[in-house]
Amino acid sequence: MGSLLSACGINVKKKKVEEERRLRANDREFNLSFKYANNAIKTSKYNVFTFLPLNLFEQFQRLANAYFVFLLILQLIPQISSLSWFTTVVPLLLVLSITLAKDLSDDITRHKNDKQVNNRKVEVLIDGELKTERWMNVQVGDIVKLENNEFVTADLLLLSSSEPLNLIYIETAELDGETNLKVKQALTLTGELCNDIQRLAAFKGEVRCEPPNNRLDKFTGTLVVGGETFALDNERILLRGCTLRNTEWCFGLVLFGGPDTKLMQNSGKSIFKRTSIDHLMNVLVLFIFGFLAFMCTILSIGNAIWEYQEGNSFIVFLPRADGANASLSAFLTFWSYVIILNTVVPISLYVSVEILRLGNSYFIDWDRKMYHVKSDTPAQARTTTLNEELGQIKYIFSDKTGTLTQNIMTFNRCSINGKSYGEVVDFAGQRVEVTEKTEKVDFSWNLLADPKFFFHDHKLVEAVKLGSPEVHAFFRLLALCHTVMPEEKTQGDLFYQAQSPDEGALVTAARNFGFVFRARTPETISVVEMGIETTYELLAVLDFNNVRKRMSVIVRNPEGKLMLYCKGADTIIYERLHPSCSKVMEVTTEHLNEYAGEGLRTLALAYKDLDEDKFAEWRRRHHEASIALEDREEKLDAIYEEIEKDLILIGASAVEDKLQDGVPQTIEQLAKADIKIWVLTGDKQETAENIGYSCNMLREEMTEIFIVAANTAEEVREELVNARKKMSPESGDEPPMEKSRFLGKKSQVVEDEKVDGEYGLVINGHSLAFALQKDMQVELLRTACMCQTVICCRVTPLQKAQVVELVKKHKKAVTLAIGDGANDVSMIKTAHIGVGISGQEGMQAVLSSDFSFAQFRYLQRLLLVHGRWSYLRMCTFLRYFFYKNFTFTFVHFWYAFFCGFSAQTVYDEWYITLYNLVYTALPVLGISLFDQDVNDRWSFQYPQLYAPGQMNQYFSKMAFAKILLHSCYSSLILFFVPWAAMWDTVRDDGKDIADYQSFALLAQTCLLIAVSVQLGLDTYYWTAVNHFFLWGSLSVYFAVTFTMYSNGMYLIFTSSFPFIGTARNSLNQPNVWLTIFLTTILCVLPVVAKRFLFIQFKPTINDKVRHKVKQAKAEPPPPPQRFPRRRISTRRSGYAFSHARGYGDLVTSGRFLRIPVKSRPALFSKNESPVADSTPQTYISIFEETQNP
């Protein structure tokens, strides 16, 4: 194509692949020379010029639409056309117009959303001044100013900030789904620019960095200033989609804009989604074309034979045109029959399908049971072309944070000195379920209490008030042992900035029970203990890491006593306890098992009194280890081990990561429907596992749960193979494959393998990156598909999409992805169906989705009710539509053998025009909009009803073949019975009625009544609308027939209405009505007999449930509010430790302290900053649970 355009004198340039990005600050002319993308984004598909051609191109991908254009061309040729051209043009224009209008509306919405984002305002440094600019006008190399709570405009290099040591806090919920804050730090050199506009305008740094890519966790580049080169890593970069938090202002240099940003690089391409039925229809239409050509060929051969043998007899009074002979006649007859028999692919089918899908979309929009009152959010079918696909889902890919959970941590239970608190019991000692009506603990005695904190066990607050030393020690530990930062904007108005929501929940619990963490400095921690201000000297923070899975602080209390407080995973703490704690440990272990059984996240808490002399010696060696140049981490860990021994167990805490309402029940229902759920989350492994247990996706009774967390490709392969061999020892090395054309695409499908028992698979993002490599992805798929539950942790947005694509490619299954954040957009677009939850992480997921609602629990109604009904209705509609049209067409075929293959129609031309548009249009729409085999209550009661849709049982190639045979049988009855009945027949008065017009009227009346009775047999759920449509259509037929065949119409339009008097001449004869009755009985008799026998001897799941519905005297009760199952677990549900080092050094260095800039003293010189010198860190949640496979 390029060479062709070049030959025509048009210069065609291929866009070069960017290998390195190079830019200069404050130099637009230099940066524009590279033609980098600006900051405007575009998610719409069309513009004013491309809408019509592109949309029509997409529509003509439907073979039937292209076929009708071809038919129209044929009908314009008078020699072969026996039908008027408008019979094709009007329906075709109607179909194209409806689809055009719908797609135009959808794209206008996308344009509005793009416009809203592109027109956001930001301050940009231009010509030495800060000017307010729209986002879309920001260019690479510009310096922009962001203020607190503002979205990051583009991918920026952080230059300076209002915080000490140029630190800033950002929320990355739109990128990775995590709402806890992350910390970024600018280079010391650029940090000195502060907010001095003149110095910033004079800054001429040059950046060389990686080209645009989708890696959220990595960045490599250099900054050259004044001939000096500085390394840039991910800790200096702010990504578009983040939000600035708790930072007054910051300045950043734009590196990537708009489509080049990592957020947009991860968003994936917009895919034109079509359902499996659409793809099957294309295949069937191809077959129908072939079948039509086959029928026309037979009839044209018949015409040639007839012309050769009989045609000469008619030449006397029907002379042939010059050059005409049998061959030419056969050729023209072929095309004439293509026009006449075109009803095998009726254009009205596509009109009806669009109306059906639109109607079922409105049912989703109008469903009050999917309306969320608190957020005033209704369910929304954002795409109207995928409804029936909701009834065929096999795999669900779900985000965790904000989708399954509310991302709200609550302090629920605790065990202190062997006594458990948090459970509410009645006077009889029976456990009571906690509801909104349950009496809450009154914290009014504590002026510094958080009003949002709720607790229901009054015994704990009484123990605090009575001065129980163990209870006080418990909450004192929670108030001291953490890395939370306090902020007190007004007197008594405390706000905690925690690096993870679970740490914040523990410190808030201590605050409400009288131990209020008030302030910290690098050397002290201030706590208000039961109203008394107390200051502890902070001597050391023994930081956590992925191996330690615990953290400790060493403090000196006001009495001068040295104390070590430690919290961490219980298995780690237990190993370091003093032997005297054995009894308390046994009781605490029982409580931990109970808490874990309820899916709570647990920590063990312990303390130790320290000796002054030993501590002084330890502190000296600790200092030596902390300044070591080699093996610093290992030396520090060894020093920590020395002092964290012989601890005294205080108790354990249990925090709940609140699930959304109804999540466990929804997952249980979907599992009963044989839908597999995979959780793809950017969260930590242990956190995701805890939610898996809470949701009953992972269960103690599972045979085994495999953890894949290897660091090399070979180790990952080995772990996957070992897991597969354990599940299926006879499983071969080569996967069982079959070639398939599922959804219209050629692919190699990996067949399911039999497994004994239930298994779960947990794999982290690092291992997943290896497993998704081309030579290993099938192994991953085989192993994962053997498991009942799959959880992928620490995955990037692109990896989420790759996992979905892997299942789409190699499994004969329909996939659904559900999420609530921008990090889920890529997988939502990739899956066959994308569902967005309008949650707390913005609206990007909703804007990219096909369906949206407010709560995960509505997914079961969307699939088990609306999805199943939509699929059932669509299949019923297609089966019936093909049946009535094939039957209609085949009668033409049989008639050809009796009319000399002359392409004469068996029916009146007006009947042919109105058959699909009027007589049979509304009844079939009635069944396809309102039919239901059982109501929604029974659909929930028996989720197994969903299974036939997954296996394509209702409409497939086999079902189509049966329809073809059924239509062939019916057409034989509908032609030959009336033909035999009309042979040499006379009226009661002896007059002849065995003419063509009388036969045509009888044949078309028999056809309409027979297909109407068949429709009645196919209807399970009769409504007033169904009755009105069915009886109304029959009434309209007889009214129109008597009107068109009247004398008046003949006199006004003689050539258009030649059937004068036929209706009144024939339809008043008893033998005519007897013939109609006989043909109808013969048409439906095999259907009734087959259904009776199948229900008796081979009933389907639908037949069984409908039988139970008939036997039941009342509706099934609504599902009861389930009390959470208590289970004893050998597994601990604990906090998730970070995969990187913690914030202990930053806490003790004072870098997080929010001191006013003017009076802020220098804690130490900036070039000594451990943050500035350290390798890149990922700032994530504080704790990580121990997992023993």
From TrEMBL:
<feature type="transmembrane region" description="Helical">
    <location>
        <begin position="959"/>
        <end position="981"/>
    </location>
</feature>
<feature type="transmembrane region" description="Helical">
    <location>
        <begin position="326"/>
        <end position="351"/>
    </location>
</feature>
<dbReference type="GO" id="GO:0007030">
    <property type="term" value="P:Golgi organization"/>
</dbReference>
<feature type="binding site">
    <location>
        <position position="400"/>
    </location>
    <ligand>
        <name>ATP</name>
    </ligand>
</feature>
<dbReference type="Pfam" id="PF16209">
    <property type="entry name" value="PhoLip_ATPase_N"/>
</dbReference>
<keyword id="KW-0067">ATP-binding</keyword>
<dbReference type="GO" id="GO:0005886">
    <property type="term" value="C:plasma membrane"/>
</dbReference>
<dbReference type="InterPro" id="IPR023214">
    <property type="entry name" value="HAD_sf"/>
</dbReference>
<feature type="transmembrane region" description="Helical">
    <location>
        <begin position="1001"/>
        <end position="1021"/>
    </location>
</feature>
<dbReference type="GO" id="GO:0140345">
    <property type="term" value="F:phosphatidylcholine flippase activity"/>
</dbReference>
<feature type="binding site">
    <location>
        <position position="683"/>
    </location>
    <ligand>
        <name>ATP</name>
    </ligand>
</feature>
<dbReference type="InterPro" id="IPR006539">
    <property type="entry name" value="P-type_ATPase_IV"/>
</dbReference>
<feature type="transmembrane region" description="Helical">
    <location>
        <begin position="1072"/>
        <end position="1089"/>
    </location>
</feature>
<feature type="transmembrane region" description="Helical">
    <location>
        <begin position="283"/>
        <end position="306"/>
    </location>
</feature>
<dbReference type="InterPro" id="IPR001757">
    <property type="entry name" value="P_typ_ATPase"/>
</dbReference>
<feature type="region of interest" description="Disordered">
    <location>
        <begin position="725"/>
        <end position="744"/>
    </location>
</feature>
<dbReference type="GO" id="GO:0005802">
    <property type="term" value="C:trans-Golgi network"/>
</dbReference>
<dbReference type="GO" id="GO:0140326">
    <property type="term" value="F:ATPase-coupled intramembrane lipid transporter activity"/>
</dbReference>
<keyword id="KW-1278">Translocase</keyword>
<feature type="binding site">
    <location>
        <position position="824"/>
    </location>
    <ligand>
        <name>ATP</name>
    </ligand>
</feature>
<feature type="binding site">
    <location>
        <position position="399"/>
    </location>
    <ligand>
        <name>ATP</name>
    </ligand>
</feature>
<feature type="binding site">
    <location>
        <position position="794"/>
    </location>
    <ligand>
        <name>ATP</name>
    </ligand>
</feature>
<feature type="binding site">
    <location>
        <position position="401"/>
    </location>
    <ligand>
        <name>Mg(2+)</name>
    </ligand>
</feature>
<dbReference type="GO" id="GO:0045332">
    <property type="term" value="P:phospholipid translocation"/>
</dbReference>
<comment type="similarity">
    <text>Belongs to the cation transport ATPase (P-type) (TC 3.A.3) family. Type IV subfamily.</text>
</comment>
<feature type="active site" description="4-aspartylphosphate intermediate">
    <location>
        <position position="399"/>
    </location>
</feature>
<dbReference type="InterPro" id="IPR032630">
    <property type="entry name" value="P_typ_ATPase_c"/>
</dbReference>
<dbReference type="InterPro" id="IPR023299">
    <property type="entry name" value="ATPase_P-typ_cyto_dom_N"/>
</dbReference>
<keyword id="KW-0472">Membrane</keyword>
<feature type="binding site">
    <location>
        <position position="824"/>
    </location>
    <ligand>
        <name>Mg(2+)</name>
    </ligand>
</feature>
<dbReference type="GO" id="GO:0000287">
    <property type="term" value="F:magnesium ion binding"/>
</dbReference>
<feature type="binding site">
    <location>
        <position position="401"/>
    </location>
    <ligand>
        <name>ATP</name>
    </ligand>
</feature>
<dbReference type="InterPro" id="IPR032631">
    <property type="entry name" value="P-type_ATPase_N"/>
</dbReference>
<feature type="transmembrane region" description="Helical">
    <location>
        <begin position="1028"/>
        <end position="1052"/>
    </location>
</feature>
<feature type="binding site">
    <location>
        <position position="399"/>
    </location>
    <ligand>
        <name>Mg(2+)</name>
    </ligand>
</feature>
<feature type="binding site">
    <location>
        <position position="503"/>
    </location>
    <ligand>
        <name>ATP</name>
    </ligand>
</feature>
<dbReference type="InterPro" id="IPR036412">
    <property type="entry name" value="HAD-like_sf"/>
</dbReference>
<keyword id="KW-1133">Transmembrane helix</keyword>
<feature type="binding site">
    <location>
        <position position="681"/>
    </location>
    <ligand>
        <name>ATP</name>
    </ligand>
</feature>
<protein>
    <recommendedName>
        <fullName>Phospholipid-transporting ATPase</fullName>
        <ecNumber>7.6.2.1</ecNumber>
    </recommendedName>
</protein>
<dbReference type="InterPro" id="IPR023298">
    <property type="entry name" value="ATPase_P-typ_TM_dom_sf"/>
</dbReference>
<dbReference type="GO" id="GO:0016887">
    <property type="term" value="F:ATP hydrolysis activity"/>
</dbReference>
